[in-house]
Write a structure and sequence with these properties.
It comes from Candidatus Opimibacter skivensis. This is ATP-grasp domain-containing protein. One of its GO terms (molecular function) is ATP binding. InterPro entries: ATP-dep_AA_Ligase (IPR052032), ATP-grasp (IPR011761), ATP_grasp_subdomain_1 (IPR013815). Strand 9 and strand 10 form a beta hairpin. The strands form four sheets. Strands 13-12-9-10-11-14-18-17 form an eight-stranded antiparallel sheet, with helices on both faces. Strands 3-2-1-4 form a four-stranded parallel sheet, sandwiched between helices. A four-stranded antiparallel sheet has the order 5-8-6-7, sandwiched between helices. It is globular and about 55 Å long. Helix content is 37%, strand content 28%. The chain is of the alpha+beta class and 420 residues long. The chain contains 16 helices and 19 strands. It has three domains: 115 residues, Rossmann fold (3-Layer(aba) Sandwich); 63 residues, Dna Ligase, domain 1 (2-Layer Sandwich); 209 residues, D-amino Acid Aminotransferase, Chain A, domain 1, CATH 3.30.470.20.
């Protein structure tokens, strides 16, 4: 064997094998894979329900092995395909996925294959919202009053102790897609009907917290907090889900180091410690009540969605997705430091059907051209999005927080997307 051949064999032998699991190749998944394939010391394995032929050619060229399976959420099937893949690429160093519902199946595959990472119990702490609330209560962490039920009579009994309005969601929900605000017994029954078979698995009913909603996104390494950012929802996601016409906005203010947020920063660290996360990026939803007190709603052990990774990237002037991958794969630390305020305006269609017209956009782009960093323009003929994120978005940043706040308000009030 030639010396160059020996070098190539030795290099490949030393390469680290990492599997990335995703149900579909959404724009967000493609972004994560794009950052992953830029790490050239890895053998990259992709497991998905779709064919990697859907990925851009430059990504396909960097993938060592791919497998398409019917259900990535089936832990037995996932473990089986990963075990087979290990015979081709060697033992996996890490298993990664950014989808909420994948965290438990991935943890179960880690356990079966002896791979380092978040264990099954910790993953369940984050997925089971009732279990999460009990851990919060045991640790003295402020959260909404709640109960776990499986039947309507149990739900109605809780309303005698904690009055309407209430929030209803499945025990293993994700985001606001299957979360309902209910104001009376009829709406409670309707929510249960909408949840269908999920109701038998458990339904969390909790106090509807009156106040403002925020997120707290935290980078951690070996149990130590590296950095935190706070996003402010205007209005709350649940209000947006209840009113499809609302074009909402999110702002990440750079001024979060003062006393205003001391309580959530402290409680946030207690919460993720109680849940057991060791290394990673966690996404927490929390409220500031009208009386000034806080209540943590829930926490996810994965990077945030809804363009939040872009918002954090722009505010801190670094690539959050790449930083998360390096943290998870190499334990490599890049501490996020907030340099700007950033914000996102979510463009949501008015009416039903497909995108027919977009008005007011050119004036907005001209007015804020110097501070707009990212744009996804709704396209004519595009189907209405099933997500509360809407059909498009505009992201901007500036040193002056008020300029960002005023621009976001201007955008949601003057850009209109019509569906027909």
């Amino acid at each position: 064997m030639s010396s160059s051949a020996h070098f190539c064999f030795d290099y490949l032998h030393r390469m680290t094998s990492v599997a990335y699991i995703t149900p579909n190749f959404t724009a967000n998944a493609v972004r994560f894979i794009d950052a992953l394939v830029g790490l050239y010391d890895l053998r990259i394995v992709i497991i998905s329900q779709e064919s990697t032929s859907l990925l851009p050619p430059w990504q396909q060229s960097r993938i060592s092995l791919s497998r398409q399976i019917p259900d990535v959420f089936n832990s037995d099937a996932l473990t089986s395909v990963l075990a087979e893949a290990q015979k081709r690429v060697g033992p996996f160093h890490r298993l990664l996925g950014a989808t909420e519902q994948l965290q438990v199946p991935i943890a179960e595959a880690r356990k079966a294959l002896g791979i380092h990472g978040m264990d099954v119990e910790t993953a369940q702490n984050f997925r089971d919202k009732s279990r999460m609330k009990h851990l919060f209560e045991e640790a003295g962490i402020p959260c909404a009053r709640h109960t776990l039920v499986t039947r309507i009579p149990e739900a109605l009994a809780f309303t005698k102790k904690c009055h309407y309005p209430l929030v209803v969601k499945p025990v293993a929900g994700a985001g606001s897609q299957t979360t309902f605000r209910v104001n009376n017994d009829i709406e409670m029954q309707s929510a249960f009907q909408s949840l269908g078979h999920k109701a038998a698995e458990g339904v969390v009913i909790e106090e509807f917290v009156q106040g403002e909603e925020f997120s707290l996104d935290t980078f951690s390494l070996n149990g130590n907090v590296l950095g935190q950012t706070i996003n402010h929802y205007i209005p709350t996601p649940l209000e947006c889900m209840s009113n499809p016409w609302i074009q909402w906005r999110v702002i990440l203010r750079k001024e979060i180091t003062g006393k205003t947020y001391d309580d959530i920063r402290t409680s946030g660290v207690k919460a993720i410690n109680a849940l057991g996360i060791n290394t990673g990026l966690s996404h927490m939803e929390w409220f500031r009540r009208k009386d000034g007190s806080i209540a943590i709603s829930e926490v996810a052990a994965r990077p945030p969605g809804a363009q939040f990774t872009t918002l954090i990237s722009r505010a801190c002037d670094f690539d959050v997705v790449l930083a998360w991958l390096k943290l998870m794969i190499y334990d490599e630390v890049e501490i996020p430091k907030i340099k700007y305020s950033s914000g996102a305006a979510y463009l949501r269609g008015q009416g039903h059907g497909r995108v027919a017209r977009i008005t007011g956009l050119e004036a907005i782009r001209s007015k804020y051209n110097d501070i707009i960093t990212d744009v996804r323009i709704p396209k004519r003929g595009q189907e209405a999005s099933p997500s509360y994120e809407g059909e498009g978005f505009i992201i901007l940043r500036h040193q002056d927080t008020k300029i960002v706040e005023d621009a976001l308000k201007d955008i949601v009030e003057n850009v209109r997307v019509d569906l027909e």
